[in-house]
């Protein structure tokens, strides 16, 4: 039996973190394909602008405000989808934050916020989504991770750690969800030109636009693949690089990212909380 693939007639697609970047572009892409898309983010104004932009498309966008770090908010979002708009057919858990980590100026706050949004935020969405899909006996879930989860990269001690955890989480959940009729996929983009990644201090090879990322993801959601990884050549190279001994891995990553030696780093500045 082939895995469930959500189509517009199956119900609602829910996208978290849809106010900008990949989430926004993907919402427009799926609405253009006829899907009814519920979008969640903290910025109500951006979501309303997104809804207006989709007004001429074959599908439509529903604005549901919510903060993924608040579990009760996510319960309310799922209740609103089910009782006001229709069956939840697909959940795309995309909300994330990138906070660059510099070992010269380490602080807990950046780690705590990264974990709260990127990791706990996914769990806060997963719990009600799986409960609703389990009751229907079918559904599709896609978790947005990143190639930064494949191995350590400059500035990625918090972001990469959360994305590595999401990879493991998706892989582990697949064993049980397969038996429940719920299909789970892992989305592993390379570097995407979003406001979040604009904070990066290193070179980002094979950079793609949010629109290209949305095109790749939309196609992958309709495939039988567990992982949707792109651009293919770059993501494959990073996977293979992780098999190298550390003596080769670190020089290769330094070369690919253009990461400077320690003497060329920015000066150490006090963290605002200190």
Task: Describe the main β-sheet briefly.
Answer: 7 strands, parallel
CATH topology: Rossmann fold
- Backbone structural class: alpha/beta
The percentage helix is 40-55%
How many angstroms does the end-to-end distance come to?
A: 57 Å
What would you say the CATH architecture is?
A: 3-Layer(aba) Sandwich
CATH class wording: Alpha Beta
Shape: globular
Q: How many DSSP helices? A: 8
The unreliable regions are 262-274
- Total number of β-strand segments? 7
Question: How is this structure best described in words?
Answer:
This protein has 274 residues and is α/β, with parallel strands linked by helices. The radius of gyration is 19 Å and the shape is globular. It has helices at residues 21-32, 44-53, 71-85, 108-136, 159-180, 210-221, 232-241, 246-257, and strands at 12-16, 36-40, 60-63, 88-93, 139-144, 182-189, 227-230. Residues 262-274 have low confidence and may be disordered. A seven-stranded parallel β-sheet has the order 3-2-1-4-5-6-7, sandwiched between helices. The chain is 45% helix and 14% strand. Helix 3 (71-85) packs parallel to helix 4 (108-136) and helix 4 (108-136) runs parallel beside helix 5 (159-180). It is built from eight helices and seven strands; from the N terminus they run βαβαβαβαβαβαβαα. It has one domain (8-264): NAD(P)-binding Rossmann-like Domain (Rossmann fold, 3-Layer(aba) Sandwich), CATH 3.40.50.720.
